[in-house]
Amino acid sequence: MKSPSLPAILRTAVDAAQLAGGLMRANLTSTSKRINEASQHDIKLELDVHCQKLIEKRLRKSFPAIPVLGEEGETGDSQADYRWVVDPIDGTVNFAYGIPHACVSIALDRRWDPAWSSTRSVPPSGYETQVGVVYDPFSNELWTAIRGKRACLNGRTIRVSSRSRLEESIVSMGFAKHPVSLDAMLPVFNGLVREVRKMRIMGAAALAMVYVASGRLEAYLEHRVRWWDIAAGGLILECAGGEFSHVRIPEAASHTYRVIASNGHVNRKISRRYKF
């Protein structure tokens, strides 16, 4: 397909994120959220599905040919040259419990090609994210980025922190529901908690990544996180001067990664010490 206008893509993604965010905001304190599926460490709500459908409807209105790869399913060919990557509610457990720390994450991926790509090697996903939007409807904070340009928070340029010492750093971690993830992350937590200023387990990967991009945190780590959780936040972080290190986990479910997202100053110390 013809290359879409990235500013137009960004405007559409922002509209879609704000529509879904409005639905989230209206239902945060509802005591009748319907649960479609629940396990010890995860919850899937009926509202996740409603939000993704609302997002898809808005995206299709402007760009009907671009398929969607989302947490709540795929529409069209998710291996096409361009694809939307959508997490309608990142931080569903928080949201289900009425905790106002959750967001909408929307990205546009383009299949990697050395003829045009800004990266020298094939990314782990096989795609290079071109546009990223993360919207927190409870704080009304909107993070945006277009590859090659500066990342913004509510229209103002953001930059990662300059902290390089672990003892001055705040590091966030995610614990996925899979036992393998818990086994991988707990030793890292036990080591880091003694070295950093504070550890935070906040429950929303996309928000953790844009907090790093905004200089609020120095790093975010997770083992077995899905692509729709990190695609938009990863681009925003890179456009804010940070580093988005991610490795696909081939034995896991599709679109699953190990991630270190950082300000670029502490990630090597973390990966070297804890072999993450």
Compact summary:
The chain is of the alpha+beta class. Helices cover about 30% and strands about 30% of the residues.
Tell me what the structure shows.
- The chain is an alpha+beta fold and 276 residues long.
- The chain folds into two domains: 6-157, Fructose-1,6-Bisphosphatase, subunit A, domain 1 (Fructose-1,6-Bisphosphatase, Chain A, domain 1); 166-274, D-Maltodextrin-Binding Protein, domain 2.
- 32% of the residues lie in helices and 30% in strands.
- An eight-stranded mixed sheet has the order 4-3-5-6-7-8-9-10, with helices on both faces. A five-stranded mixed sheet has the order 12-11-13-15-14, with helices on both faces. Strands 1-2 form a two-stranded antiparallel ribbon.
- Helix 1 runs antiparallel to helix 2 and helix 5 (205-213) packs parallel to helix 6.
- The model has no long low-confidence stretch (mean pLDDT 90).
Instruction: Note the beta-strand portion.
Output: 25-35%
Number of strands: 15
In the CATH hierarchy, the third-tier topology of the largest domain is known as Fructose-1,6-Bisphosphatase, Chain A, domain 1
Average pLDDT, rounded to a whole number, is 90
Helix content percent band: 25-40%
What's the CATH architecture name of the largest domain?
2-Layer Sandwich
CATH class of the largest domain: Alpha Beta
Q: Provide the low-confidence segments as ranges.
A: none
Secondary-structure-derived class: alpha+beta
General form? globular
What is the C-alpha radius of gyration, as a whole number of Å? Answer: 18 Å
